[in-house]
Specification:
By secondary structure, the chain is mainly beta. It has one helix and nine strands; from the N terminus they run βββββαββββ. The protein has one domain: Pnp Oxidase, Chain A (Roll), CATH 2.30.110.20. Helices cover 4% and strands 43% of the residues. The strands form two sheets. Strands 1, 2, 5, 6, 7, 8 and 9 form a seven-stranded antiparallel β-sheet that branches. A two-stranded antiparallel ribbon has the order 3-4. The longest helix has 6 residues. It is extended.
Length: 155
Amino acid sequence: MSTDDGSKQGATWPLPKFRFEVDIGTQLKGVAFQEVSGMDAENQVIEYRKSNSPLFSTVKMPGIVKYGNITMKRGVFANDNTFWDWHNEIKKNIIKRRTVLIKLLDENGKVTMQWQLNNAWPTKISSTDLKSDGNEVVVDTIEIAYEQLIIANGK
C-alpha cells in the first residue's frame, strides 16, 4: 500500500550516512564535519574456571566495556580555533570534559539517530599538510577519548 507521497507504508530503508552534525559542547552548535569515525564499544573478556569444574576449560564472561577513540575531520575556517583551544585546556591532568552529540539527520534536518559521548576530551589534534601545488581545503583532525556511549533513536 502506498501513501500520497509515493512511499510504501511500513517499508524499512537503511539510513543514509552523509547528513550529520556534531555538537561538541561549545557556543558552536551543529558543527559541520567532513567525517566522523571510530564509534565502537568492546567488552573485555573475563575467563574463569571453578576449582571443582569437571571441564578442563574456562567460562567466558563479559567484563568492563572499552570504548575506542572517535576521530573527526572538518574544514578549517578563518579565526576558528575551536579544536586547538579545547586541546590547549589540558594542563597538568586538568581538562574540561564535555558531552559530545553526534546527530544523524534525515532529509528534513530532523535527528534520526544520536550518539552521545560522555566525559569526552581531545587526546590528539592534527592539521593538514600544506602543498603549494594542491587544491584541497585545509582539514583539522581531532581524536576524542570518552567514557560512555549512549545511542538514541530520533522521535
